[in-house]
Each structure stands twice: as structure tokens, then as C-alpha cells.
Amino acid sequence: MMKLNNLKPATGSTHSRRRVGRGTGSGLGGTSTRGHKGAKARSGYKRKIGFEGGQMPLQRRVPKAGFKNINHREYFAVNLSTLQNLAEKKNLTKIGIAELKEAGLTNGKELVKILGNGELKAKLEVEANAFSKTAEEAIKAVGGNTTII
After folding, report:
1. Per-residue pLDDT tens for 31-86?
2. 20 to 30 A Cα–Cα from 93, which one of 16, 61, 74, 121?
3. Whole-structure pTM over 0.90, yes or no?
4. HEC per residue, 36-89
5. What whole-number distance in Å separates Cα of residue 28 and Cα of residue 21?
6. Phi/psi at 86 (nearest 5 deg)?
């Protein structure tokens, strides 16, 4: 019968810890598996991150390139064809962030930009964070309206 007091790991699944520096009789005394002398044999030794034995390290061989624009804004792109499909399926005249979230296109937190790919037939009032020129023209061409949030 199995009880908590007689549980054991499977045979061969565990190993006893190697105890170094406990006398020559143990076979792991003397230099304690560290070899003879040198920085690596001393306590407190730590090799620098990226050190390549004196060779010029990779992060110094490769030139610096590019920069990160702190004013960059990441937009979630929605095409006119997507708006047309959404308007047909749900019979909408106004599409905003809430409607796009409801359709599962966005999580509601990201910025949305309407792009001009596809054809728009429905007259729509569209609310978004940004519009491309072609999208804005296409929405206004069918008598719709664009509002930047």
C-alpha cells in the first residue's frame, strides 16, 4: 500500500551532489576540479559577459546601426474591404472602435488606422485614430463621413 511516508523516487532518477574539496581521499580534494592556478581557479572569478578570450567581441566588431524613434506610433490597420464586409454582415451605418472590437478585429486599446485597400459601397460614418488619404477620399466619395478620435 502506498503512503506518503514510503514514497521514493524511481531508481537511477536522482544523483547525489558532488562534494568537492573534502580531502584527497574523496578523489575531489586538492584543486577541487578547478585545475591549477590562474583566475579561473580563484574564488570570486567571473568572466565578463561577451568575453571571447581577448578576441574582439562580437558586440564590438559589429557596427552600430539605426535608431529608435521615440515619437513612433504603431497603428492597427483596417482596410475599406473589411469595413464593407462588417457593414453588410451587421447592417451598420456607423463604425467606430467599439464596433471593430465587437467584431474581434481589435482589442480596443490599440490605435486604429483606416487604409484604402478594397472597395466601399456603403455610406458609412467611420471613427478611427487615423485615415490614409485614399481611404478618406473613398469614404467621402460614397457620401460617408470620417471622424478622427
Report:
1. 999 999 999 999 999 999 999 999 999 999 999 999 999 999 999 999 999 999 99
2. 74
3. no
4. CCCHHHCCCCCCCCCCECCECCHHHHCCCCCCCCCCCCCEEEEEHHHHHHHHHH
5. 6
6. -65, -45
